[in-house]
Specification:
36% helix, 5-stranded mixed β-sheet, alpha/beta, single chain, 15 helices, 451 residues, 8-stranded mixed β-sheet
């Protein structure tokens, strides 16, 4: 690398090898699980008008005031790289007339951008998976989303995290609770951390997010949401808990778990690593693996009609850290030849295998004598050697089947049978001399000394 080679931007990452395989495993598992729950795939713009995020996230939040990547385009309009998915999906719901599909279940994944201090598992360009249910005000929507999240984590092999659950009540319950929190914290303002004193002026509920040990002691002595719940809000939360019990989703009640923005209602939740677990060691016991809540007031902040909605998001990088390194899949078949005159046949045969969805690596470069050794070093199940036809064989090519190093205890005869089965799918009957068949213009024979 030369002195003038550009370096990666701080807070970004180049993902490769086993880390890339873990990343892909998270995305593939998410795609499979969201189909099980009948969530429709959506793709959103990477940037929106700045007001989409300023109005939905609130001008006083750290994300809007400090962390957004905002810029003016050539037309003088302020645009922002998306720091989260929900606001853009809500905007799309309103501007594209998706109300006709309500209740609408959607899911997406992709890159997001926040200018914050890079640290373990946190980047300035990062990636999330996201699921939302829009237009459903029933607690069953919350339960379905949480069951989906729980199943996703289990299928990723992450079993040492627990769902932490709370309610923020309806709008009236939340406002009564908020007013009493302001009175309580104002009376002990001097005892709060500096950060919590600032939050008292801007967004009092965020004090409950404080990780400061002294703040946490004061929080435990403060007003609890349960004392302010309306009958309707209480019933809603009870139905969510009963639904989770019925779905077999374990959870812990966390009375201090909140969402600071005013449009959040009812259910708030986070999946958090269990103390002392491997996930806690990897991320920290206070780290959230997946989180979300019900945001029934968001659509109104964007100029739409009141619309109930609930959703969650999870960082792909964090999930990939918990999944751990994953090796790349080994090829099923490696095809090569020690004869340069047969290399066209190597590639034509590889193409035929791939059309039948068989994973293939073709080797056609390097020392001719070392190609077979290179093929075996890839640890396939089957090695196919292409050799020139000669002698009694009236055909275009001969192939020799070898058991690959990745085949385990499979016998040579079983290897031959498996290769024959693969080739029969693209018009080859083995062992036999055959003519041009089913559009495949090669003939095959098996040498007498095949192993």
């Amino acid at each position: 690398m030369g002195k003038n080679t550009p370096q990666a931007i701080r807070g970004t990452q180049d993902i490769f090898g086993t880390e890339a395989e873990a990343f892909a495993f998270v995305v593939e598992t998410f795609e499979r699980v969201r189909r099980l729950y009948r969530f429709r795939r959506v793709e959103m713009p990477v940037f929106e008008k700045t007001e989409v995020f300023a109005r939905s996230l609130g001008e006083t939040t750290d994300v809007v005031s400090k962390e957004m990547y905002s810029f003016e385009d050539r037309g003088g309009e302020s645009l922002t790289l998306r720091p989260e998915f929900t606001a853009g999906i809500a905007r799309a719901f309103l501007t594209n007339g998706w109300q006709q599909y309500a209740p609408l279940k959607v899911a997406t994944h992709g890159p997001l951008f926040r200018y914050e201090r890079p640290q373990k598992g946190r980047y300035r360009q990062f990636h999330q998976i996201d699921a939302e249910v829009i237009g459903a005000g029933e607690p069953q929507a919350d339960v379905e989303l949480l069951a989906m999240a729980d199943q996703l984590l289990r299928e990723l092999g992450i079993h040492d995290v627990t769902l932490h659950l709370n309610t923020l009540g309806d709008a009236e319950s939340r406002e009564r609770w908020r007013a009493q929190l302001i009175v309580y914290f104002s009376n002990i303002r001097s005892e709060l951390s500096h950060e919590s004193q600032e939050r008292l002026d801007k967004n009092p509920l965020r004090i409950l997010d404080s990780k400061d040990p002294k703040d946490q002691m004061l929080i435990r002595g403060g007003p609890q949401i349960d004392s302010f719940l309306s009958d309707k809000a209480y019933k809603f939360f009870m139905e969510v808990q009963r639904g989770l019990d019925d779905a077999g989703v374990k959870y812990l009640r966390s009375g201090t778990l909140v969402r600071g923005l005013d449009y959040y209602r009812h259910t708030a939740f986070e999946f958090i690593p269990d103390e002392g677990s491997a996930s806690a060691e990897a991320l920290g016991s206070q780290s959230t693996v997946l989180g979300g809540g019900r945001y029934d007031g968001l659509m109104e902040s964007l100029g739409g009609a009141p619309t109930p909605a609930v959703g969650w998001a999870a960082g792909i990088e964090r999930l990939a850290m918990l999944v751990g390194s994953r090796e790349e899949d080994l090829p099923v078949v490696v095809i090569t030849s020690e004869h340069d005159d047969c290399l066209r046949d190597v590639w034509r045969l590889a193409a035929a295998f791939r059309r039948t969805n068989v994973s293939v690596e073709a080797i056609s470069t390097g020392s001719r004598r070392k190609r077979y050794d290179k093929a075996q070093s890839l640890r396939p199940q089957i090695v196919v050697l292409v050799i020139p036809p000669e002698g009694e064989f009236d055909c275009d090519m001969l192939i020799e089947i070898k058991r690959g190093r990745g085949a385990g205890q499979v016998s040579p005869h079983e290897t031959e049978a498996r290769a024959a089965d693969y080739m029969s799918k693209f018009g080859v009957v083995v062992p036999a001399q055959i003519g041009r068949d089913r559009g495949f213009d090669l003939q095959f024979s098996w040498p007498k000394d095949s192993v």
